[in-house]
Design goal:
By secondary structure, the chain is mainly alpha-helical. It has one domain (14-301): Cytochrome P450 (Cytochrome p450), CATH 1.10.630. It contains twelve helices and five strands. The protein has helices spanning 21-36, 41-63, 68-85, 101-110, 123-131, 141-151, 154-166, 174-183, 187-204, 209-214, 216-220, 266-283; strands at residues 66-67, 246-247, 250-251, 289-291, 298-301. The strands form two sheets. Strands 1-5-4 form a three-stranded antiparallel β-sheet. It has a two-stranded antiparallel ribbon with strand order 2-3. Helix 2 (41-63) packs across helix 12. The two termini are 39 Å apart. InterPro entries: Cyt_P450_sf (IPR036396). Keywords: Iron, Metal-binding. This is Allene oxide synthase 3.
Length: 302
């Protein structure tokens, strides 16, 4: 567990065991917050996605390719901030730098998981730098204080920023990782997704819960094989394999409760991932990416 100095001296919900009384109280509070915001998730997320695609196309028209992570980071941050704070971060003292403010603090928490992809002979230096001693919290205290004054609650900020990434094994944000895994298989999978999405949306008359449930391939590609991405893995009979998918501190088929350690937003993240795929392939038939291995999953988008 990271030092509680990184969290204002508190053991946040993520670090509490289920048998501790505060765990159920805090997780119950998170559930109640999510329920209270249920009518905002989808329209706000689709609005943020529209802004993302506009920015993406503006840069693509000029350069022919674009560094996707920067744009998706801003979109993810804007969505979370507008969802919980009910205002645009551009209208606060955060300005356009809001999406980068938590990165330094988050880096200190995730440093033990980082790999630089160095040759084996140099792994010793990587282990010594990132994996041996905890990075001192005082180095990020100014960022922490400035940012926390806007969210006003350490455990909430940690949950909104880190929960989205850690329990999906995503380090930077879910949009970047989703684009990476869907982008790598290439045009064949893209065409199949595009045909399925456009057909179902046309038949259903829009993007509805019923439409999302009928997009079997779209549902399947939200998950990933540990070694290789297989878009059709969970289609048809493959749906039975979902019981072997372990993520978010539990199996995919397990229910969320206050007594377990599964992320309260697990199902929400899956839903938003599907919506992002739908919005993506309603706009584009195919795309290519360049991916790197470090902290940021995809690098550029074409």
């Amino acid at each position: 567990m990271p030092s509680i100095s990184s969290f204002g001296g508190y053991r946040v919900c993520d670090f509490l065991d289920p048998f501790e009384p505060k765990h159920a109280c805090l997780k119950g509070l998170i559930f109640s917050i999510l329920v209270s915001l249920r009518n905002k998730f989808i329209p706000l997320f689709r609005n943020c996605l529209s802004e993302l695609f506009v920015n993406l196309e503006d840069q693509l028209s000029v350069k022919g390719k674009v560094y996707f992570n920067t744009i998706s980071d801003k979109m993810s941050f804007n969505f979370v901030f507008r969802l919980f704070c009910d205002q645009n971060p551009l209208d606060t003292r955060l300005g356009s730098k809001g999406s980068t403010m938590p990165d330094k603090w988050l880096f200190f928490q995730l440093a033990p998981l980082i790999t630089l992809g160095l040759p084996k002979l140099l792994n010793f230096f990587e282990d010594l730098l990132f994996h041996t001693f905890p990075l001192p919290a005082f180095l990020v205290k100014p960022n922490y204080i400035s940012f926390i004054m806007l969210f006003m609650c350490p455990w909430l900020r940690f949950w909104t920023k880190l929960r989205k990434f850690q329990h999906l094994w995503w380090v930077e944000n879910f949009a970047s990782c989703l684009i990476k895994w869907v982008g790598l298989p290439g045009e064949k999978l893209h065409r199949e997704l595009c045909d399925e999405i456009k057909t179902v949306v046309r038949v259903e008359g829009g993007i509805t819960f019923s439409a999302l449930e009928k997009m079997t391939l779209t549902k399947s590609v939200v998950f990933e094989d540990p070694e290789k991405f297989v878009g059709h893995m969970f289609v048809g009979e493959g749906e039975k394999l979902l019981k072997y998918v372990y993520w978010s501190n539990g199996r995919e088929i397990d229910d969320l409760t206050m007594e377990n350690k599964q992320c309260p937003a697990k199902d929400l993240v899956v839903l938003l991932s599907r919506i992002m795929l739908v919005e993506l392939f309603l706009r584009y038939d195919t795309f290519t990416i360049e991916a790197e291995t470090l902290v940021h999953p995809p690098r550029s988008f074409r």
